[in-house]
Amino acid sequence: MPRMIFVNLPVGNLDASMDFYKAIGFENNPHFTDETAACMVWSETIHVMLLTHAKWRTFTNRPIPPTSSSEVMLAISLIERDAVDTMTGAAAASGGTADINPVQDLGFLYSRSLADPDGHVWEAMWMDPAAIPSGDQPG
Prior knowledge:
The chain is about 20% helix and about 35% strand. It is built from three helices and nine strands. It has helices spanning about 15-25, 55, 80-95, and strands spanning about 5-10, 25-30, 35-45, 45-50, 75, 95-100, 105, 110-115, 120-125. The longest helix has 13 residues, at about 80-95. The model has no long low-confidence stretch (mean pLDDT about 95). Keywords: Lyase.
């Protein structure tokens, strides 16, 4: 089995959250979806588990932060620069918030931040490693 990541997120409205994630390019895995949780697939190795607040509380007693707070920013890469704008537009049209942070355009790297309906922060990004200025490359 390959190494995988499952990001677990508490959501206030499971159906609305599923619609949001579908709109920005995730697919639903019905084998791990019921009335309390939905598995949304970004890639073969990256899955987002949307959990109702009641389901979330079966895993932890820690409080669910308000939608105005930010604990992490999850960055996902896109194949084309234009896809960053497409995803951000879809987020805004589907109950999320676009450009919650300043747009970053470094030429070789372009990113825009968005929040889902529950305030979880995502960064849609595109990068062309071949275009990184030689002084900026690690090593």
